[in-house]
DNA sequence: GACTGGCACTCGGAACTTTCGAGTGCCAAG
DNA sequence: CTTGGCACTCGAAAGTTCCGAGTGCCAGTC
């Protein structure tokens, strides 16, 4: 059905359209690529490609533009992920290396990704699902107010305040601190519920109400976070390059960026860091984003993904370069996180 | 020069223009407001107002629109800050009350502000300048790697990692932890440098290199943070309501939002929480934002501001309502922070 | 002297028309 | 199967017309 030349034509159309954002005619194609055939032949091929649904005409007397299916075929079969230049790789590592803590890593990553791809970048914070308790600190802020600080294996720090109706004894706090750490250290957050269940009973009945409220708060922090899934966004200014049709292209994206729930669905399940997920136009779950594509991948250790990062851009983006950049950034972030 | 009626006319023009975003003619003005005079009279007044530079004509055969000077006069003399409805106030408190930690307070605030004002909201994180050390925690992550956690009086938590070439003794860590807390607790961050200077000498010569590197990292964290000034942004989707002229109105704002340094300058010095800063159009320090106004105010305790929050929007915004919302949110956030 | 009705004038925007040419599909010939 | 030729289509750009909101000015009125 579609011989090699027709696929070449499709590839050429996608590449040119991505470069110019204007419908591509048969003549222009032949001029810009040495296909070795005449425009008339290309026209026949185009007719076939249109028949198959890979390209379409905005109006009768115009050139062709790729459909979502066309991009899909292009991404799957007609292109290879572009690797970054040595200079770019260096820039990435040196930029990420300067990070001082986990938050900073995420902030830098999002900025970097936006800059390289010139698209809107999205980075999910490493999820607590897989992480474990490294340390729990209990600090007295005032006699009746305690601050709980939870430090996880991937460097994330969570804090909660606990109020108590009576003055709290320092010795009890020290005791509690050491017990909590004994019980929880190294535990997966998801397993913490069971581990904490027995803790109040280790204390004198008089102290149990306080201990119980601390345990409850701690559990809340665990489960809250497992569900919450924080996200960082950057490069929104790149939306200005979408060209015209503000209402249709820019507005929905800007709105989606505000809703982290939507972004999480857009990014999708954290995949293996080796695999790139590309969702083109209508393939993504939101109708308003039908002119938008998502390129995402997981990051974290080699075997299991901690979280997802990616970019959002117009369907007519440069997929090979973008995919290369996303993959590279994911790899380097994984590396940085593994080191620290 | 400008009698009361002329000022009434100006007020009416500003109000109508804010509502319609279209040039206001003399007839329309008389129809919508009961000024008690004929269009011809209003025309004379308009001519005077234009002479004074408060309004201008986009083109000869059109109505008038306010100039930046016109808005300025309106804000300073012709309007009063609009107070929020009881329902709105309730909504604010209940929304903010749900926050679990400082980060959450800021995130909620930015969201809230964007929602109420329907503009782009900016909230500066409470600065560390004024804050003091509440607690310092030193945690062993692996024998040669330590995690420092700094908790400040306003609930902010900073973390840093310190590597050491040799295995570190747990006893030393405990010792160090208690000494650091003794020395620093309650100290202003800005005073910490001097307080920390003597610490290494308290330890055995063999341990001093480790102690010194920890002290250095800690100091870095202090000063880093004092300078850094984090910022949260929200409601970028509200930019879509700017109407047309995307290139001139939306793009520069979107770009500014990416640059936190620019945002900090836009917000300006943290003012007393009682005072609202309004910067209209060209009054702000960036030429590209000449069609944009900023409404900001400080928040924190009654007497001194911790940080600044505000909104960015088109010059033709509804100043009374926006100012009311910004002020109210700042007050409630201050209250929440004071409590915790 | 301040206000008003009347009036001629201006000019941008909407609506319509014209022109232009890139691009097409089809066909007959190579 | 490929190609040159050709008639045809139709959107975009440029030109044209038309309309009326809005203006400034002036003479008359209170």
TrEMBL record, chains A, B:
Single GO MF descriptor: DNA-binding transcription factor activity
Keywords: Repressor, Stress response, Transcription, Transcription regulation
All copies of domain Heat-inducible transcription repressor HrcA C-terminal, residue ranges: 103-323
SUPFAM superfamilies, per the entry: GAF domain-like (SSF55781), Winged helix' DNA-binding domain (SSF46785)
Protein name in UniProt: Heat-inducible transcription repressor HrcA
GO biological process: negative regulation of DNA-templated transcription
Recorded coiled-coil stretches: none
Gene name in the database record: hrcA
HTH deoR-type domain span: 34-62
Record-stated family: Belongs to the HrcA family.
Lineage: Bacteria, Bacillati, Actinomycetota, Actinomycetes, Propionibacteriales
């Amino acid at each position: 059905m579609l011989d090699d030349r027709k696929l070449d034509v499709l590839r050429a159309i996608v590449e040119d359209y991505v470069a110019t954002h204007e419908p591509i005619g048969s003549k222009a194609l032949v001029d810009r690529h040495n296909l070795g055939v005449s425009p008339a032949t290309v026209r026949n091929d185009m007719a076939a490609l249109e028949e198959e649904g890979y390209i379409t005409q905005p109006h009768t007397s115009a050139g062709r533009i790729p459909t979502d299916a066309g991009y899909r075929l292009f991404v799957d079969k007609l292109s290879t992920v572009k690797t970054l230049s040595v200079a770019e790789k260096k820039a990435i590592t040196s930029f990420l290396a300067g990070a001082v803590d986990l938050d900073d890593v995420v902030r830098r990553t999002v900025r970097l990704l936006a800059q390289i791809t010139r698209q809107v970048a999205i980075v999910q914070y490493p999820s607590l699902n897989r992480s474990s308790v490294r340390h729990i600190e209990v600090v007295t802020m005032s006699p009746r107010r305690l601050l709980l600080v939870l430090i996880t294996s991937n460097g994330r720090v969570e804090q909660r305040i606990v109020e108590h109706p009576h003055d709290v004894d320092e010795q009890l706090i020290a005791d509690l601190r050491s017990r909590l750490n004994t019980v929880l250290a190294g535990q997966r957050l998801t397993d913490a519920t069971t581990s904490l269940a027995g803790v109040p009973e280790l204390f004198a009945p008089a102290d149990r109400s306080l201990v119980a409220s601390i345990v409850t708060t701690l559990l809340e922090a665990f489960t809250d976070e497992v569900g919450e899934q924080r996200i960082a966004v950057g490069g929104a200014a790149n939306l200005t390059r979408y060209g015209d049709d503000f209402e249709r292209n820019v507005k929905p994206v800007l709105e989606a960026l505000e809703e982290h729930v939507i972004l999480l669905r857009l990014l999708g399940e954290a995949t293996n860091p080796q695999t790139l997920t590309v969702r083109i136009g209508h393939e993504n779950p939101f109708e308003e984003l039908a002119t938008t594509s998502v390129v995402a991948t997981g990051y974290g250790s080699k075997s299991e993904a901690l979280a997802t990062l990616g970019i959002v851009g117009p369907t007519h983006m440069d997929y090979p370069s973008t995919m290369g950049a996303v993959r590279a950034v994911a790899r380097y972030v994984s590396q940085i996180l593994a080191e620290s």
